[in-house]
Amino acid sequence: PIPCVPWQSQTSGQYQRRVHGGDILSCKVETDKEGKSRGFGFVHYADKESADKAINKVNGMEISGKKLYCTKWQSRNARDGQLETTFTNVYVKNFPVAWSEDDLKKLFEDYGQINGCAISRDEKGKSRQFGFVTFNLTDEAQKAVEELNDCEVDIDGTKEKLFVGRAQSKRERQKLLNKLYYAKKRKEKAEEQKNNDASLFIKNLDDTIDSDALSLLFKEFGTIESAKVMTKADGTSKGFGFVTYEKPEEAKTALEKMNDKEVEGKKIFVDVATPPTWQNRKKTTKWNSYPTGSSPRRGRYNTSVGGHYAHTGYGGMQYAWQFAGSAGRSSETA
């Protein structure tokens, strides 16, 4: 790849003329949606020797006031891995709102030559309390991170810890956010499963039992987090409900004691609550809504015709399709 290509070099033809030596198989300048150069591109040579010569000749070359950087192509994972040890850009957050770029630079200037310093601000110009400092050398940036991370600064009379670390690319941040998101989801799922072990399903309840009565009925076995009797649109009971205990052991005791117990003249059924999933929901589709054998499209397995899928067609005719690899298609009168 060759970053820092002037935006005027928009075509691969212009780009190809800038790169000298060897048989070029392909050449491309990356462009945005409007077709304008993004300032970098790729050249694919037929052999390694030609590529090495081009790197030695083009790297550092100055075009239109910009110095080209030319190196061998690397995968994203390889580039991200290198950034962890070769970075020069440092990310800083949690500093006072009143700090300017000069204040931020003053904090880091003891660690080496600073090439750039910027604070992120909103549309009104107010500091978002994070910014970036770019050093000349990787060692300087690493030393600043090691010594200034968790350093305390005074903010409105209180001590706050700075966060100082390697500035990450947008792709790295997204990858980290995804990792944290799915870790949180796994934790929530594990917690939900734990709660499910402490939740009970109760059915065959009398119409006079509401949520409060259900809670009163089960509270002797432990601490109840929630008790709910499901109701219809008019507010009358559906005859079943749920009770969730603080601990699974309490739910187990309640299950053993209350299952088949007579309440208001009716034996109630108690079991561990199971969350609904798409696997255990019966769905009515156009395929299973027809009586057996009368589907107009889908056949049914019929042993009477030798293990074929049989389909009843017009005029009482029954057509049979054999499995793949059998002797084609046959028909017989029903």
Descriptive report:
This protein has eight helices and 20 strands. The protein has helices at residues 12-18, 48-58, 76-86, 101-108, 138-148, 170-197, 211-218, 248-258; strands at residues 24-31, 37-45, 62-63, 66-67, 89-93, 114-121, 127-135, 152-155, 158-161, 163-166, 199-203, 224-231, 237-245, 262-263, 266-267, 269-272, 300-302, 308-312, 317-321, 329-333. By secondary structure, the protein is an alpha+beta fold.
Mean pLDDT: 77
Characterize the largest beta sheet: strand count, sense, and whether it forms a barrel: 4 strands, antiparallel
**Alpha-carbon distance between the two ends:** 72 Å
Q: Tell me, what's the shape?
A: elongated
Structural class: alpha+beta
Helix content: 25-40%
| Strand segment tally | 20
Strands of the widest sheet, in order across it, are: 6-7-5-10
Strand content: 25-35%
Unreliable residue runs:
4-12, 14-18, 284-290, 292-334
Following the backbone from N to C, one meets helices and strands in this order, namely HEEHEEHEHEEHEEEHEHEEHEEEEEEE
DSSP summary: helix tally? 8
- Radius of gyration from the alpha-carbon trace, in angstroms: 36 Å
Give a brief description.
The protein is an alpha+beta fold and 334 residues long. It contains 8 helices and 20 strands.
